[in-house]
Amino acid sequence: MVPSPGFQSRFFVLANEKSYTGRGPCPLTSGPESESAQEFGRYHSKYAPIFVEPHIFTVHPLLLWVQMAAYLRLEELVVLGDAMTRRSFYRVHVSPANFATLLNELPTTFPHRKKCDKAVKLLAENTDSCMETRLRFRMLRAGYGPFVINYRLTLNTADKKQAFLDIAIPNLKIAIEYSGKFHAQNWESDEARRTALSSAGWQILSVNAETLSNSGKFKDFLIQLSMTIARQQTILQRNQQM
Question: Which SUPFAM superfamilies match (predicted)?
Fold first, then answer.
């Protein structure tokens, strides 16, 4: 979703001849979808507009997120929330707990609370890409999970290299990787990692953009995931009985 210039000017940026001090009303957008959230931000300093440069302020990111609930499907609201909690040296980091705190503090008249509550329960901190979020979201909605994001383990190699798995079910040794541009550019190191993981009993499933965009192929992937879970559960039970 790419907001129009008019939409951006209404929701994202506040530009005035006088700097906003955080006291009294500020001319943010008003409307049935976002009025209660904005009124809340006007009088609560921790959610006040953020200074960008002289005469320019932005809506607080968390308030923007709840306002976008009026326009985004649940999946895209989760994608946006995950992006806000992503690892980065260049922006302020927020956690899923910050979203939950905001929802608890919003006025009871906020009209999209149910959707936001559902989204907060599906957020994951420190994800790597929007496509990984979409993959995790669709697996959860299909009844799979819970998952561990960016699961770290030590490979059984001479240098004991650390590996991070996009999405994992650690107790069953199942790794689900989104094969995007990064993996395509690092296929040699990825292949060595896959070999080390396989030798340690891990099953690795890969998903790409085509799989996510094609409902038939995604159903095939879910069937493969179900079969892998059943197989790994059998192996786990057998090992526990030994």
Answer: Restriction endonuclease-like
